[in-house]
Amino acid sequence: MFKGSMVAIVTPMHNDGSIDKKALQELTEWHIGAGTDAIIAAGTTGESATLEPDEQFEVISLIVRQAAGRIPVIAGSGTNSTRTTIRLSENARRAGADACLIVTPYYNKPTQNGLYAHYEMVMKQVDMPVILYNVPGRTACDLLPETVERLSQIKNILGIKEATGKVERAAEIIRRCGNTFAVYSGDDATALDLMLAGAQGVISVTANVAPQKMHAMCTAALGGNMTLAAQINDELMLLHKNLFLESNPIPAKWALAEMGKIQAGIRMPLLPLDSQYHQDVKKAMQNAGVK
């Protein structure tokens, strides 16, 4: 079972929007050195919505090769089409990913039975571990705890990234599904509280910018050192919040460019961080000790 600080890694791009392979290799190496516990490739933060299928395969493959077994690689492969999700998940398997992170189908607003059928069909076609991903703020679709409980009985569905920011919601899933089903926070600001409630870690945006501290916070929380975990989390809290001043991954990519880790490239319809937020993100970086 995966646990700890799992970075939802950005996809570095040149100024023309093409993928910067060298920067992605260097980011992967940086995360391994910083103690990041797993890398999520081609997820929401990785701009999956505007990656072509061959680009998704290329990003996952590159990270897998660079990681070389030193860190798990989980691939974002969810779409609003069951057939396309199956195809992208199979691509992720061929690329060597350790698991897939599959978001609920967005825009078309399936019923709870439709959501169950969607994941069931994917699991019949793709033989690899899967983490469910619930983020209704982006998808207009909410995977309810009772449906998660049903899905937890399907072989190879290991857990869920619960990104509602509602600790009581995640706690209910933990109660319903038991210790063999992992719950991961998808909301940095409430991740510590969720780990106190029994979650196994966080799939994090903040870890893009402050990987060592996110790893240290998660290690302390999962190890029962709440004093240290709370202290580190306090240092990160402004970063947790200010990395969402505009749509993710806009602020995270800007911060990484400021750190010299990537170029400023981002793919339309997203645009670079508006100048009115530059100082806010800089302040959050300084509070977290990021340079």
Automatic annotation (TrEMBL):
Entry annotation: catalytic residues: Y133 (proton donor/acceptor), K161 (schiff-base intermediate with substrate)
Annotated EC: 4.3.3.7
Entry GO MF terms: 4-hydroxy-tetrahydrodipicolinate synthase activity
Binding site for pyruvate: T45, I203
GO CC term, one of those recorded: cytosol
Pfam families referenced in this protein's UniProt entry, alphabetically: DHDPS (PF00701)
GO terms for biological process, alphabetical: diaminopimelate biosynthetic process; lysine biosynthetic process via diaminopimelate
Role played: Catalyzes the condensation of (S)-aspartate-beta-semialdehyde [(S)-ASA] and pyruvate to 4-hydroxy-tetrahydrodipicolinate (HTPA).
Name by which UniProt lists this protein: 4-hydroxy-tetrahydrodipicolinate synthase
Upper classification of the organism: Bacteria, Pseudomonadati, Pseudomonadota, Gammaproteobacteria, Legionellales
Gene from which the chain derives: dapA
